[in-house]
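Lay summary. Proteins are chains of building blocks that fold into shapes, and those shapes determine what they do. In this project we predict the shape from the chain. Here is one chain we studied, written as its sequence of building blocks.
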Amino acid sequence: MSEPLSLLPEGSFRPRIRRRVRRIHRSALWRRLFHWRQLDFEFASWQMLYLLVSPRRVYRNIYYHKQTKNQWARDDPAFLILQLAALLPTIIAYSVVYDVGLNGFMKALLQLVVVNFILAGVLVATFTWFVANRFLRHRSVHAADQRVEWLYAFDVHCNSFFTFFVFSYVLQLFFVPVLMKTSWISLFLGNTLFALAASAYAFITYLGFHAMPFLQHQEVYLYTIPLVAVVYLASLFGFNISHHVTDYYF
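And here is the predicted shape, written in a compact code that computers can read:
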């Protein structure tokens, strides 16, 4: 079934409509950001839970969101706010465990939130957005020309980063006494958690773009998983990822 935009005449009018829709979407995000009563934290919490236990269900819900609001990206920043809020106590916990003081806490906060989550997320979202629009779109003369929204690509990164964060940072807190040692068990456990986290990131990213019916060959986003497997097996011969990540932050 064609989108409503497909009924618009060809030419410069249709791009203007798309730009106007994007501006309305961004303004709605900013308005809700400063009106907390309009934020749906309960739904955002539901999404976080199901990203861990049934991520396909999350993207089915996003598909329904597209059908009702004619946009793929979230129009509610509650998920992003909860995600940033979850990073803070985790960094505090690590700072206490490794006794790094306020300076160490601020350094870890800057690196995890600003560098790893936001800046790296912008780069990853831009790359996946470019690949999807440039190589994966299924063009048909019988349907409207649809494109992946950059904000949706960043939403996919946020979803993927949340699962990565849980596997590689939250779970490791429960194994810190083991991971701080220099034994092979410490190496195996820490590297396994990071490998699972990286694989989960790739899989959630794949699901995010697989939910878009106008794309094809989305399995390209899974190609990083074999690379993760190779790096993981090689690391078992003596490269302790957990120790190096700890040195990076603290």
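What the prediction tells us: The chain is about 70% helix and 0% strand.
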